What we know:
The complex is a heterodimer of chains A (about 400) and B (about 260). Chain A starts with a helix and ends with a helix. By secondary structure, chain A is mostly helical. Chain A is built from 15 helices and four strands. Chain A has two domains: about 1-35 and about 175-395, no CATH class; about 55-165, Periplasmic binding protein-like II (D-Maltodextrin-Binding Protein, domain 2, 3-Layer(aba) Sandwich). Chain A has helices spanning about 1-15, 20-55, 65-75, 90-95, 110-115, 135-155, 175-215, 220, 230-260, 265-275, 280-305, 310-330, 345-360, 365-390, 390-395; strands spanning about 55-60, 80, 100-105, 120-125. In chain A, α1 (about 1-15) crosses α9 (about 230-260), α7 (about 175-215) crosses α10 and α9 (about 230-260) packs across α11 (about 280-305). Chain A has a four-stranded mixed β-sheet with strand order 2-1-3-4. Chain B is of the alpha/beta class and about 260 residues long. Chain B is about 40% helix and about 25% strand. A six-stranded mixed β-sheet of chain B has the order 6-7-8-3-9-10, sandwiched between helices. In chain B, α4 (about 105-115) packs parallel to α6 (about 150-165) and α6 packs parallel to α7 (about 180-195). The radius of gyration of chain B is 19 Å and the shape is globular. Chain B starts with a strand and ends with a helix. The interface of A and B includes residues 6, 7 and 223 of A.
Amino acid sequence: MRNIKIIYLKEMIDMIRDRRTLFFLILFPILFIPLMVVGFPKLIGSISEQKMTEILTVAIVGEDNSPELTSFFRDSENIIIIMDVPKDSIESSIISENIDAAVVISDNFENDIQNMIPALIELHYRSSDDMDALQKRLSVGLNKYANIINKTRYEQLSLNEENFTPLNIQHNNIASQKEIMGKLMGGWLPYIFILYCFLGAMYPALDLGAGEKERRTLETILVSPASRMEILLGKFGVVTTFGILSSLMGLMGLYIGIQFSTELPPTVQKIIFEMLNIKTIATVMTLIIPVAIFLGALLLSLSIYSKTFKEAQSIIGPLNILIIFPSIIGTIPGVELTTLTAAIPIVNISLASKEIVAGTIQIPLLIEVYLTLLAMSALSLYLAVRMFHKEEVIFRG
Amino acid sequence: MITLKNVSKSFKLTRKLKNEMALNTKSNNFQAVNNVSIQCEPGKIFGLLGPNGAGKTTLLRMIATMLKPTEGTITVGGYDVARNPGRVRKILGFLTGNTGLYDRLTAEEMVKYYADLYGLDHATYIRRRDRLFDMLDMKDFAGRRNGKLSTGMKQKVSIARTMINNPDIVVFDEPTSGLDVMTSQAIIKLIRLCKAENKTVIFSTHRMGEVQQLCDDLAIIHKGNIFYNGTYNNFSENMKTDSLEDEFIRITGETV
């Protein structure tokens, strides 16, 4: 135990002095997550706002077929109307960006409106995006125009508009706001702490396994009085500690991000902070620790197996996807924690934390999650111990 | 005292390893050390002479408990390396020419780390550290991180790390390999000092000059087999060629 402590403390000092480790451990989660939470919605909002208000140049072809519709477009905000574009040059004008879109009013437009049959309007634009603001703005404009016509028709026919709204649906969702938000946020929480646990443990694992082999410091520690088990446990302790710390930093980053988010309504912010209380965080923490043990032992054994730092990176890199993918499953609506999903590593953490945050966790399922994680941690630690005792692995290459 | 009795070591060969080593064999085993019996005594320097790939490092790693012999027994200071590896490591110092250091630790932290692992009490550590730092002229850079040190300085730190437990047995695996003249001389001086302090010293080299300079006893190893095992004086008196190099080639039956 004494030697494990000595090795642990030395490796901690060694790691803390490394700038790359500190970057992944502190700066990355503390800066990156708040930036994502605060900056990303802001950026999306500002781009979308800009798209919705930018001035569009729209050609109207067949303006004489409906002077009313033409004038409707002319009165619309942020739209410049041009009239002199022939129908057969619409496409080339859009491609050459002389116009953004074109509205072609059919010859029988006014007649069809008068006769209450659908009047044809062609919209020409160039969009590879379903959510395109240009298409949305033109459609919204035309719908407004259609509503005006509808109103006139109701009046002409002496009809009550309400008679054409057959259902009055009232929603009564008995789930609390906490539950709804919990399921939404709880799915993302494990994604963040699994991702950061992996990132935080990855560099120390690379450095303390393959890195030590490459620097030829492993030989000297192997001939010290510390046994291989003590050396491994000291290193494993450091990798796991960094995994846990990085996860916590990730959660702290999220907390800071929500605190400074101007996009979230204050009521939602309040609910989130109520959810992230000490009890919830402590329960989620009990999931982080076995995850860190599992990932720490797994990463360390792969690193020890590798001949060089570079080889370890090439082995561990793809593992990232294998770990992150199941952790995203928790964000998929409808996937629930069951006796089956509670036995699937990583997926179970993702689903369990969703339930914990929402306050709907069932204790037998939570116990199953812990047991699965403990079994996985024991297995990966056993793998690491075996690796570290194999001559052909330690002196590979 | 180090005693090896009929020690052999073989490694499993993978197809990849066979290709890398350009081995044209159907066997899945590589015999790195074959039936070696040698004895290194206290107060004497035992030289292990052989070319690259002769099996020197494998032999020394077995003595230092890093590898387990496939056959035979090794005792170091009376302890069997297979049964009591922990005891062996307590009385052993191990130094190579390309020993790595922890770049982010200072020279002093590096030495203290190993002193702690050897379980030295604070007073003993201070006494030994001061003596070693004086002897190796390390005081000026003791507080500097290893990553910022020159090759010579780094090797001095390695020496201090190796000697901080005042080992009875010291194993040097090609200790001067890749080092400049000044640093090599510091190592040679250390090996002589170990002999003067009645320690058991075994060192491997492929440099004939070092054997002449230092060795009391000598073993010539080639392709895992021992071709000579005896005193250096006996070896040099019975040489049938003009130089150590030629004699080595004659004994091992190799052609240039």
